[in-house]
Design goal:
- By secondary structure, this protein is an alpha+beta fold.
- The chain folds into two domains: 93 residues; 141 residues, Kinase associated domain 1, KA1 (TATA-Binding Protein).
- Helices cover 46% and strands 14% of the residues.
- The protein has eight helices and six strands.
- Strands 1, 2, 3, 4, 5 and 6 form a six-stranded antiparallel sheet that branches.
- α1 packs across α4, α2 runs antiparallel to α3 and α7 crosses α8.
- The longest helix has 32 residues.
C-alpha cells in the first residue's frame, strides 16, 4: 500500500520563498552602490524592502509551524529554513536598534571637543555643523572616554608622513592636505572614508600640531548620513590611532603625563607606505 503524502502548508512554501530573496538582494544593492551605480535613496529603499520581506517570511513561518502543530503534515524543513534566513537578515536592524538605544545620538566625533579640527573640503552640511554643546560633550565623554588626542615624541614631519601613509593604506580619498614644516606649525590631512558594508561616506580630518617635544595629533570623523553614527566614527578613530601607534612604535601618553615616552628597542622606525594623492574633484 502507498503511504499517503503529508500535505505541506502553503505558508511554509511562501515563507521559504520570501526568506530566500533578501540576502541576494542586499548583496546586489551593496555591490551596485559601491560601484556608484545606484544612489543612496534607492539603496535604502532596497534595504527596507529586504527587511520587510524577511519580516513577512518570519510571520509566514510562524503560521506554518502552527498549521503543522495543529493539523500535522509536512513542511517543517522549509519553515525552519525560512526562519533561519529571516533571522539572519533581521539581525542587522536588531543590532541597529540596540545601538540606537545604547549609544548617544552623535554623528560627529573629535578628540578635541573645545577646538575640533576644521573641515574645508567636506560638504557644507558637515563644514557648517555647530560645535558640540555641553550636553553633547558630556555624552561623548561618557560613551567614548578613550577618544582623546595622541602625543608622539617624533617630529611633526615624521608623524605627518606616517599619517599620510596610513590614510592611503585605509583606501581613503584625500581631499585636502598640508604638511607641517618650519613655516607651518600645524599640518592636516582631510579625507573621505567609506563604511565597510554599504560604503556610506564619512569625512575625516587629522590635525598635527608641533608642541616642542614632538607632535600632538587630533582626529575628527563625521558621518554624512543621519544624525546617529551607530558608533562608526568612534571605531574609525580607534582603529586609525591603533595603526598609527604601531607605525610610530610609540605609546601615547595619558592625560596626566604629557612627557614623550622613549621608543622601544633601538628606536629605528619602519619604512612608511607612499602617501595618497590629493583629490581635488
Amino acid at each position: 500500500m502507498r503511504r499517503p503524502q503529508r500535505p505541506i502548508p502553503l505558508a511554509a512554501i511562501w515563507a521559504l520563498r520570501l526568506a530566500a530573496l533578501p540576502i541576494p538582494l542586499l548583496i546586489l544593492a551593496g555591490l551596485l552602490h559601491r560601484a556608484s551605480m545606484i544612489a543612496l535613496a534607492p539603496l535604502f529603499i532596497v534595504i527596507g524592502l529586504a527587511w520587510l520581506m524577511a519580516g513577512l517570511a518570519l510571520m509566514a513561518a510562524v503560521v506554518a509551524f502552527r498549521s503543522i502543530w495543529v493539523n500535522g503534515g509536512g513542511g517543517a524543513a522549509p519553515a525552519v529554513g525560512a526562519t533561519a534566513l529571516a533571522l539572519l537578515v533581521l539581525a542587522v536592524p536588531a543590532a541597529i536598534i540596540v545601538d540606537l538605544v545604547r549609544l548617544p545620538r552623535i554623528a560627529d566625533l573629535s578628540t578635541d571637543l573645545s577646538d575640533p579640527p576644521l573641515f574645508t573640503a567636506a560638504p557644507d552640511s558637515v563644514v557648517m555643523r555647530p560645535l558640540p554643546n555641553e550636553v553633547e560633550r558630556a555624552a561623548q565623554l561618557d560613551a567614548y572616554p578613550d577618544i582623546l588626542p595622541r602625543h608622539y615624541p617624533q617630529s611633526p614631519e615624521r608623524v605627518y608622513l606616517a599619517i599620510a601613509g596610513l590614510v592611503a593604506a585605509h583606501g581613503w580619498t584625500v581631499t585636502d592636505a598640508r604638511a607641517p614644516d618650519s613655516d607651518n606649525e600645524v599640518g592636516w590631512i582631510e579625507a573621505t572614508a567609506r563604511t565597510l558594508l554599504l560604503a556610506l561616506p564619512a569625512d575625516v580630518v587629522i590635525r598635527i600640531i608641533a608642541d616642542g617635544s614632538g607632535a600632538l595629533v587630533d582626529m575628527r570623523s563625521a558621518s554624512r548620513i543621519g544624525a546617529h553614527d551607530l558608533g562608526d566614527d568612534a571605531r574609525r578613530i580607534r582603529d586609525f590611532f591603533a595603526d598609527l601607534d604601531a607605525a610610530l612604535q610609540g605609546v601615547p601618553e595619558g592625560e596626566d603625563d604629557a612627557r614623550p615616552q622613549a621608543l622601544e628597542g633601538d628606536g629605528v622606525l619602519p619604512p612608511l607606505p607612499e602617501p595618497a594623492p590629493v583629490s581635488r574633484s
